[in-house]
Amino acid sequence: MTQQQTIALVESLDHEGRGVAHVDGKTIFIDGALPYEKVIYSAYRKKPTYENADTTSVLKESFMRTTPRCPHFGTCGGCSMQHVEFTAQVAIKQRVLEDNLKFIGKVKAERILTPIAGPTWHYRHRARLSARMVPKKGGVLVGFHEKNSSYIAEMSECHILPKNISDMIMPLREMIAKLSIHSRMPQVEVAVGDKVDILVFRNMDAINAADEKLLQQFADTHRQPDRPVQIWLQPGGPDTCYPIYPLDAPRLTYSLPQYSVEMPYYPTEFTQVNPQINAVMVSRALGFLDPQPGERIADMFCGIGNFTLPIARSGATVHGMEGSQALVKRAVENATHNGLQDKVSYEMANLFEVTPESFAALGKFDKMLVDPPRDGAIQLLKAMTDDTAPQRIVYVSCNPATLARDAGVLVHTKGYTLKAAGIINMFPHTAHVESVAWFEKTGPAKSLKEVADMEAAEEAIREAKRQARKQQEAEAEARKQAELAEKAAAKEARRQHYLANKDYYDARSAAQQQARDAAAAGEDVSSKE
C-alpha cells in the first residue's frame, strides 16, 4: 500500500453520491464508496481540511451495494449511483433533502412525503451527447464525458437513454466518421417526443450533399413504425437549429393527459428529461396548490408552461414569468395551442433582480408556484411583504441546498409554515435530487429591522466559521512547513556529517568496491575452471 492509499470507514453519502469518511481530522470524499463500508482509497485532490479520492478496493461491502447494470459505469460520468441498490438510492436522496432542510434552512416539514419514483431505466428523453474524432480509439466517440474529465467516454450503449436511442450510439459513431465535417461536429442533442425522435447535430461547418445523404440514410434506417427519426442541424446557438429530414415528421411534443394538455417544443428548449415522473410531479404540485376558479396564481420561472397550463385548466387565472424571451414566446404559443390563452398571461423578467416595488406592481396573487434553476429564488422571496405575499407557495426545486436556504427565509422571516416536503426521483442512478415543498402563510413577516438584525447575527456566525477555517488551514500549513523544515534540517545534518567525515566514507567506499571487484574476479576464475 502506497502513501496515497489509505483505509477508511465510510460514514455517509454527500449530496453528490460520494462516500464521506474522516481520517486524521480530515474529511475524505470518496467516489464509489458507500456508508458502512471499509475501503482503501486513493486521493486525487488534497486540501488542508478535506480530500477527494477514488475507491481502490472494498474491504467490507455495504448492504446497499449492487452490481452496476451498465458496463461503462465508473468511467462514464452520466451516472454516479448504479452501484447503489435502487430503493437505497431513493432513501439516500430523501435523507439529503431532510439534512439540508435541518442544517441549512433550520426548518422541519410537518409532513415528509412519500418519494415520487418511476421507471428505473431508459427514462432520459433529453440528452446532449458529445462527439469527437479520436484516432487512437479507432474513430469517432459519441457519448457522455468521462467522470471528472473532459474526455468522452468510449460508449457502445446507455441504459438511461431510451432503448432505441441507446441502440443508435454505435451506428452514430460510424456515420459521423464518414461525414466530411466529422471533426467539426462536437455534439448530438437528443429529444424524444410523444411521436418523434429528434437528433440535432451541431455542425460548425456546412455539410455537403454527400453528408446530407448520409444523414437521411441514418434517419431512414433507424426509424420505427409510425415513429420517425428526424434530423436537425444547429450551425450556431440553440436558436439556429432547423430540421432537414424528413420535413413532414410529427411535431415534437410531450403530454400531460390528466390536464388535457399537449406541449409542443423545440429540441433545444428546456423540458424535464423524464416525462413519466414529470406528469406525477405536476400532479403532486397542483394537489398542494389546489387552484380554484376565480383565484389569481403566479407561476414563477414558468418555462414553456409546464405548470402554467395545468393550473389554468382548473379555471384559475395564471400569470407566468420567465427570464428567457424564447421560452416566453413558446409558452404563449402553447397556451393558444391548448385553448387556454384567455386564462394565462406571460411576462419576461429577471427574477433574480426582483424588488419589493416590482413584485408589488404585479398585483396581489392568491397562490404562487416557484420552479427555479439551481440558484434558487431567494431574491424573489425576499421581495414579498405581508401585503403582497400569497397565502400558499408550492416550491419545485432541483437543488435541495437552495431550497433549504429559501425555506429558511420563508419560515423564519416571512411567516410561512413548511407543511410538507419530499423528493422526486427525476434522475435515477444519479445524485441529482429534485424535490417539492408546500408552504402556507400562518403568521406575520418580520420587520425590516428584525430581518437586518437576524442577517447580521448570521453573518457574524459565518464570519467566525470563516476565521476558524482560516486558522485551521494556517495551522495545517504551519505543520506542513515545520515538517518540511525538519526534513530539510535532517538532510543538511546528514550532509554536514558526511563532509566532516568525508575521508572515512571515501575510504570505506573504496574498500567496499575493492571487495566487490575481488569477489567478481573470484567468480570469473571459478567459471573458467
TrEMBL record:
Keyword Transmembrane (UniProt): no
Lineage of source species: Bacteria, Pseudomonadati, Pseudomonadota, Betaproteobacteria, Neisseriales
Name of the featured protein: 23S rRNA (uracil(1939)-C(5))-methyltransferase RlmD
Stated role: Catalyzes the formation of 5-methyl-uridine at position 1939 (m5U1939) in 23S rRNA.
Family matches, as HAMAP family: 23SrRNA_methyltr_RlmD
Binding site for S-adenosyl-L-methionine: 272, 301, 306, 322, 350, 371
GO molecular function, one term: iron ion binding
Residue numbers annotated as active site: 398 (nucleophile), 398
Binding positions for [4Fe-4S] cluster per the UniProt entry: 70, 76, 79, 158
Catalytic activity: uridine(1939) in 23S rRNA + S-adenosyl-L-methionine = 5-methyluridine(1939) in 23S rRNA + S-adenosyl-L-homocysteine + H(+)
Enzyme class: transferase
